[in-house]
Amino acid sequence: MMPVTWVLLLSAFLFSVGVYGVLARRNAVLILMSIEVMLTAVNINLVAFNAMLKDVEMMGQIFALFIITIAAAEIGVGLAIVILIYRNRTTVTVDEVSLMKW
Questions:
Q1: What 3-state DSSP class applies to 46?
Q2: Rounded-to-integer distance, Cα 85 and Cα 101, Å
Q3: Distances in whole angstroms, Cα of residue 44 to Cα of each of 51, 80, 84
Q4: What is the model's pLDDT at position 90?
Q5: Considering the domain boundaries, does residue 84 fall inside one?
Q6: What are phi and psi of 67, to 5 degrees?
Q7: Distance separating alpha carbons of residues 58 and 96, to the nearest angstrom
Q8: Is 57 helix (H, G, I), strand (E, B) or coil?
Q9: pTM, full prediction
Q10: pLDDT at 95
Q11: What gap in Å lies between CA 40 and CA 85, rounded to an integer?
């Protein structure tokens, strides 16, 4: 079995890439994809700690399934909002969308 350190390093790398994607990107679709990468990193952490602690009830994997469900709902709602903004403004660049500005 692989040491948990490598799995945690992979998860930290994925989470860092996701944070960079959220902070550096201006395209709304790429921001949503970066959030998905961050949620994937969290799922990897949950499953790794579940395997490391040998949890009988598999709580880490159950939480990972909940996060996958929430991520699917988030991407569905997020893409619907992005498509509606694109129809109204013909852009998905976050800087140019000023729907909630005064």
A1: helix
A2: 15
A3: 11, 27, 33
A4: 84
A5: yes
A6: -65, -35
A7: 45
A8: coil
A9: 0.85
A10: 81
A11: 26
Distance, CA of 6 to CA of 44 (rounded, Å): 11
Burial class (CB in 10 A: 0-12, 13-18, 19+), 51: middle
User: Per-residue b/e over 66-81, b at no fewer than 16 CB within 10 Å?
Assistant: ebeeebeeebeebeee
User: Can you give 29-97 as a three-state secondary structure string?
Assistant: HHHHHHHHHHHHHHHHHHHHHHHHHCCCCCHHHHHHHHHHHHHHHHHHHHHHHHHHHHHHHCCCECCCC
The model's pLDDT over 29-55, given as tens digits with 9 standing for 90+, comes to 999 999 999 999 999 999 999 988 887
Q: Is residue 83 part of a domain?
A: yes
Domain count, the chain: 1
Domain of residue 56 covers 4-89
Q: Which residues of the chain have pLDDT under 50?
A: none
CATH number at residue 47: 1.10.287.3510
